[in-house]
Structure formats: C-alpha cells, structure tokens
Design goal:
Strand content of chain B: over 45%
Largest sheet of chain B: 14 strands, antiparallel, barrel
Strand content of chain A: 35-45%
Number of strands of chain A: 24
Order of helices and strands of chain A: HEEEEEEEEEHEEEEEEEEHEEEEHEEE
Helix content of chain A: under 10%
Shape of chain A: elongated
Strand order of the largest sheet of chain B: 2-3-4-6-7-8-9-12-13-14-15-16-17-18
Low-confidence stretches of chain A: none
Number of helices of chain B: 3
Mean pLDDT of chain A: 91
Order of helices and strands of chain B: HEHEEEEEEEEEEEEHEEEEE
Number of strands of chain B: 18
Mean pLDDT of chain B: 90
Radius of gyration of chain A: 31 Å
Radius of gyration of chain B: 22 Å
Largest interface: A-B, 46 and 71 residues
Helix content of chain B: under 10%
Oligomer: heterodimer
Shape of chain B: elongated
Structural class of chain A: mainly beta
Number of domains of chain A: 2
Structural class of chain B: mainly beta
Strand order of the largest sheet of chain A: 4-5-15-14-8-13
C-alpha cells in the first residue's frame, strides 16, 4: 500500500504543478497577427456645436462666499443675514426676557492665499433686506465707516477651514444691537482688507459652514434653582456675495465657472472605426484659454469634464460616476489646459451615447478663477478645443 | 527499487527542471497531439496502433476483454530558446481519456475516447520602445492563447477469427482558442489595452484500421483516417474552412521471447492539404508530417505482465505548422516507463517520462514530459 500511496502522491504532485506559460516572442515568426499598432489622431470639436450655458449655481447657492479687495481688478463683498433672534426665551412654559452679556460673530475661512499675511475681515452692519437680486452698487452705501462694527484679523497661521471670531461685550454691544425695525434679524456685510490685492473664500450656508451669530444672555428669572445663563446660537438664514464687475458673457467663447456659474458643452464627431472597435489608451482634451489663468494663489481650482448622457443642450444630464469624471487642476498663469479624459471617452465607445462632454469648475460658483477658452469659432485652428486620441484598432486575431 | 526511483524523479523534477509551453504550437492549429495512452508513451508510441487505451487505431479495441477506462495527465517541463531569448515554462495537460469494453456474445468491442488533437496554449511576451506623441515610450506586449482541438472518437472493432481484427471510428473534432493581446505602457499616462477573441472549430472525421496476428510472435497493424475539414469561426462569425489531413499508419510488433515485446510504427499525415487555407488566412502554412517510433516492453513477471514492466522507446516526427515559411520543425524524443496493477487487477497506474528535443532553424526547445495514467476495470 505504501507503494500505491507513493504513486498517488506522485499523481497529485504532477497535477498540482502551477502552469507557467510565458516565453519570449521573436516577431514576426512567433507573433501571429503581428503586434498591436497604436494610432495617434487629433479631433477638433464639431465646428459651431460648442456652447456655454450660464446660471447653474447662483452666488447665494455657492458653497463659499467670495470676498476680495481687487484680486481680479475689482472688489467682491459677502452679505449674510442671520436667523431671527427672539426677545424672550421659553422657560418652564413661560416666556422670559433676558439680558445680553456678549455677542460673537464667527466666520469660516474656506481658503485664502497663504502667502499673504495681515488679512482682516471688515464687518459692516447692513440692512437685512437684501436678497439674491442685490447688486454691488445696491449695497455699497451700507459699507461706510459709520457702519463698521468690527475688523476681524485672520491669523497668519490659519490656512483652510479655520474659524475667525469676534466678540462684542460691554459698550460694544450697541454695534450689534438689533432695532425693532429689523424684526430681530441681524445682517452683516464683509469686506477684505489686506496689504496686497487678494481674496478669501468664506464658508457659506450651502456648504454647511455659514457665518454664526451667537448671543450669550442671562435670563430674567427669580427662581435661583433655574439656570440663568443661556446661549442663543443663530446660523445664517441667507448669504450671498456681490461683485463690483458684473459677469459678461461672450457667445463665441467657452466660459467655465463664475457666478452665476457657466458650463461649456463640447461635441465631437468621432468616426465609426473608433466608436465601434477601437481601444482607447489615452485621450487628452486640449483647451486654450483666451488669457492666462488667474485666480487666488494656493487655492486649488479644478476643471471637470463629464460625459453627456443625452444631448439636450444646456440641461443635458451628465455622467456622475467619479471614476469617469476626469479633472485637471488649473495652474495659475498657464496658457493651455489639458485633461486626461480616457475614462470619459470610453463611455462613448460601443454605445448610443452622444460624443459630447460638459466642462465645469470645482468649486462651482465659488472660485476666483473663471477660465474662458477659445471655441471652435476661433480663427486660428490651433486655438480650438481638440481631443487627442491614442488608440488601437481591433487586433487581427483571425490570422492563425 | 526502480519504481521508487521513478516516483522520486516525478516529485523532484518539477523544481529542478525548466521548461515552456511549446513555441511550435503558436502557428496554425497548434502543436499536434499523439492520441496515446501513458503505457504507449513509455515505449515511444511504438505500440500506439496496437494499444486499446490509445485512440489511434480503432481495430486495437479488439484486444479489450473487460470494460476498462483510462485517464492520462501530462506535466511538461521545457526550456525554449529563440532569437528573442530563452525561458523555462511548464504546463499541465489531460491528453487522453478512454472508455472501452466488449459486447457480450459478439466478437465486438466498442469504446469512445477523448484525446488531444492539437494544443495551442502559449503566452508570448515582447518589449520594445515606440514613439507616442513624439516621446519614446517603453511597452510590453503579451499574446496568449488557451485551448486547442479535441478529438472525440466513437469506435468499434470486430474480430475475424483468431488472427484478424478490423475497426472503424467516427471522430468529432472541436475546440477553441481563447486569444488575448495585451499591451502595457511604462508611461502611466497610457492605459493598458487588452483585446480578446475566440476562435472556435468544428469538424468530423472517420478512421478505419485492422490488425493481423501471425502466430503468437508477430502482429501487423494499419490505419487510414480522413478528418475532412474544419470550420473556423471567429467570435461566432465564420471565417473559413481548413482542410484536415489524411493519416496513414503502419505498425509491427514482434515478440522474440515471451518477456520482450518489440514494436515499431510509422504515421504519415497529409497536413499540406491545410497549407493553402492557412496561407489564405495569413498564416505560414502547413506541411506533410511523418512520425516514426520504435520501442520495447520488457515484462519482469510473466505471471503478471502488467506489473512493473520496463518500457523504453524513441520517436521522431516532423511538425506540421511552420514558424517560418520554407522550414519545417521536427521533434525527437526518448522515453521510459512502467506501471502496475492492483486491486485484483481492477486498477492500474502507468508512468512515462519522455525527454524531447524540438527545433526549427533558430527556434528550439527541449524538456521532459512526465505522464501518469490511471486505468480502472470495474
């Protein structure tokens, strides 16, 4: 039996050997069908079929509030209106008045140029009646020295995501006293003061980081057994920002970003040999800005491209799978922009989806960078948007 | 002592030897199989036309006296060399399955077998530098195939008296090659590409044969086979037909003394019939082949002839599918084997070790094929 067991062991040893089949190939003798051939071809966007559409994200819908002192040659100011503060607090089913001890205003700094020191947020008391249609000129009269209630320094050590806070107490409480005409609503306007032209992005309601208005009060209750100290925290009811220079659109160009935000739709006409049977190994979308990219240094801004699922113009639904949304960080000063978009282009292959994509900016509606690119209407063909494809056609497997 | 030595060899050879999947199976339909059971492999294939567990000659089924089934596994360890370099590879195959038995009250035996007709298993790798977008980029290409052709045979034999036996078989030849071409770029900016296709084949063939005993010492056997043509489909789309060969074989067996059997056989296949079809499909064509084998089986115990016999043999064969037009590859192998029966002769194990050398011009390979056969007679 030992002999038989050994034979069976030998059988198992034979069957258990792992295959290793890779050998060097000496072409063409050992390369049936030849070797893969890669083609490199440039496709310009379909002439006249590229457009910009505006109005996706309004300033009051943005995840950040832009405040600048002339970064782009003009000023931007933020406006915030807090929730209504009641003049009494319910304590054991009884409304009780209170005495304000102190008040704090807090702002989240979402981004700033960390190379610039000495920033200050200038907080102005403004009328709470502003809304999404308010303009820079409309609110400018409120930004006068008499309305300045605080100058909040931004620590030089604060980079992104930090909170700056100012506290009013004692005599300073009069600056944030809410008049009866305002119905318990406090509204502030924010400007930026800095030694150089720069800007900051402040947290906004849409991003869950809006300004905060906190009141510390002592209740008017005779019962010593009741806690008398109360904190009344009021978040922002509405916020927006206004720009000194209104956004101007040019229908012959492709604008991305801004506020209201713009997106650009590009269409391509790829030949059937690519759509039906090619394997794309690299796809680069090449865009030429009309001017070098500008924005807030050290603040990352990304250009995103999304494949169009159904082409219905500016309201086209787009693909949202993260792996299929190529992005490119816009470098300030760059004169060309390239996005590696192979995962996006793959969605066009072998399907009935339109060969079209939408460009947008992130953060949308909340960036100092507002790139504008040449369209297919540019006189110089080299400036037009184009797609550079490196691809393989079907391998000729049929050759035995 | 011989048997433990063989077992030890089988156990340690996998780690000690180096080998490859045959580069001579890259072209055409692949590397041809031999349709041999393990006990016939041990003697170089010289007894193939007389062996009922092999699937070469349907007339050989006449020697089946009880229902029997056999199964073979072959492990290859080879080293391949060509102008691009050398490599060691190994592969496992299950080249033969047979079931056969006699029909009671009639001098008839029937059986079916499932054997390897051609094997096209390989992975070939190359690397080079190409210019992409004006920049040199290193790329690595691999081309691989898995699969091959199988020969499913239903056969029967009829014994005419004590000396003659005739047989006929019907063959279904089918299989597929699952092909993959992959290119990987060193530059991470380029995605790797992988393209796949499946070539599938179907065809039918017939074979007839006879064997003739001249007393107890001498026997002759002959085979004629036509495999018709093969329909080739690429991803379910017909791409053409390939003519398969006629095969003619002749074998002789001589027993000079009761303990020793000597045999020799030759097989000719007209693969050139596929030449024009393969050339039309862009291949390098095919050529006729001849296979010659000689071997011996020494019985150590005449009372138990299948218990630890010593088998030796050699064979030479030309290969049908050329790597370079105008050349023809060939194979030479020497082999040894043994076997035993146990469980009251109801079960058996056979072992064969073959050393092969193959070459065609600057392309060559050599290595060991270790085969183990399991047979059962319920």
């Amino acid at each position: 039996m030992k002999r038989y067991a050994a034979m069976l062991l030998a059988a198992l040893a034979l069957a258990g050997c792992q295959e290793k089949l890779t050998a060097p190939a000496d072409c063409p003798a050992l390369c049936p069908g030849g070797q893969p051939q890669i083609f490199d071809e440039v496709f310009t966007a379909t002439p006249g079929a590229d457009s910009s559409y505006s109005g996706y994200i309004q300033p009051h819908q943005a995840r950040s509030l832009l405040v600048s002192n002339g970064l782009e040659g003009f000023e931007e100011r933020a406006l915030a209106r807090f929730l209504t503060r009641a003049d009494s607090v319910s304590v054991r089913d009884t409304l009780r008045g209170y005495t304000i001890d102190s008040v704090a205003l807090s702002f989240t700094v979402a981004a700033r140029d960390t190379n610039v020191n000495g920033l200050e947020l200038l907080i102005y008391r403004i009328a709470p009646g502003f809304d999404s249609s308010s303009t820079f000129a409309g609110v400018a009269p409120a930004f006068v020295p008499e309305s300045l209630i605080a100058a909040v320094p931004v620590p030089d050590t604060l980079n992104t995501g930090g909170v700056v806070r100012t506290v009013f107490q004692g005599a300073d409480l009069s600056r944030v006293q809410i008049s009866a005409a305002d119905s318990g609503r406090l509204a502030v306007g924010i400007r930026l003061s800095a030694p150089v032209f720069t800007g900051v992005r402040l947290g906004a309601v849409a991003g869950g980081t809006g300004p905060l208005f906190t009141t510390y009060a002592t209740l008017d209750v005779p019962d010593t057994g009741t806690a008398k100290l109360r904190t009344i925290a009021l978040s922002t009811a509405f916020n927006t920002y206004v720009s000194e220079a209104p956004q101007v659109s040019d229908t012959t160009l492709l604008a991305v970003g801004g506020a209201p935000s713009s997106r650009s739709l590009l269409r391509f006409s790829l030949p059937p040999r690519i759509l039906d049977s090619a394997t794309i190994v690299r796809a680069t979308l090449e865009l030429t800005p009309t001017a070098p990219i500008v924005g807030l240094p050290t603040d990352v801004v990304q250009l995103e491209a999304r494949s169009v699922l159904a082409d219905v113009g500016g309201k086209s639904p787009v693909n949202t799978q993260p792996l299929r949304v190529p992005v490119d960080t816009l470098e300030l000063g760059s004169t060309t922009v390239s996005i590696e978009a192979v995962r996006l282009i793959e969605l066009w292959l072998g399907s009935n989806r339109p060969s079209a994509l939408v460009l947008s900016l992130a953060p949308e509606g909340a960036s100092f960078t507002k790139p504008v690119f040449h369209s297919t209407r540019a006189a110089d063909p080299a400036l037009r948007p184009r797609l550079r494809l490196s691809y393989l056609l079907s391998f000729p497997f049929e050759t035995p | 002592m011989r048997q433990p030595f063989l077992i030890l060899l089988a156990l340690f050879v996998p780690a000690a030897l180096s080998a490859q999947s045959s580069q001579f199976g890259v072209r055409g339909l692949g590397f041809p199989g031999r349709g041999l059971a393990v006990r016939a492999m041990g003697s170089g294939g010289a007894f193939g036309l007389f062996d009922a567990e092999s699937s070469q000659n349907p007339a050989a089924l006449a020697s089946v006296t009880v229902l029997a089934s056999g199964f073979a596994i072959t492990q290859g360890f080879r080293r391949v060399e060509n102008p691009a370099g050398s490599a060691s590879v190994r592969n496992t195959r299950f080249p033969q399955l047979t079931v056969a038995g006699p029909v009671r009250t009639l001098p008839v035996a029937v059986g079916f077998s499932f054997s390897n007709y051609t094997s096209r298993d390989f992975t070939l790798a190359t690397s080079q530098t190409i210019d992409l977008r004006g920049t040199p980029v290193d790329v690595s290409d691999t081309f691989s195939s898995r699969g091959g052709l199988n020969d499913f045979r239903i056969a029967g034999s009829y014994r005419l008296g004590d000396s003659w036996a005739v047989g006929a078989g019907f063959h279904i030849i089918s299989g597929s090659n699952r092909l993959t071409s992959t290119r990987v770029f060193d530059d991470p900016g380029f995605l790797s590409s992988r393209q796949r296709a499946e070539l599938s084949y179907t065809g039918v063939g017939v074979s007839v044969g006879f064997s003739r005993l001249f007393g107890a010492k001498l026997a002759l056997s002959a085979l004629a086979r036509s495999d018709g043509h093969l329909n080739a489909d690429l991803d379910s789309t017909r791409t053409g037909t390939i003519d398969l060969p006629f095969s003619f074989g002749f074998g002789v067996r001589w027993r000079p003394v009761p303990a020793l059997d000597l045999a020799g056989q030759t097989m000719v296949r007209t693969w050139s019939g596929a030449n024009s079809d393969l050339l039309a499909m862009g291949g390098t064509g095919a050529q006729n082949t001849i296979e010659v084998a000689a071997g011996a089986e020494y019985t150590t115990d005449l009372r138990r002839p299948y218990h630890r016999p010593l088998r030796l043999g050699a064979h030479y064969a030309t290969l049908p599918f050329t790597l370079v037009m105008g050349q023809q590859g060939h194979e030479f192998g020497v082999s040894a084997g043994s076997g035993l029966r146990f469980a009251q002769q109801r079960a058996g194990l056979d072992l064969a070790i073959e050393h092969v050398w193959r070459s065609e011009g600057v392309y060559s390979e050599n290595g060991f094929l270790i085969s183990l056969g399991v047979s059962v007679r319920p």
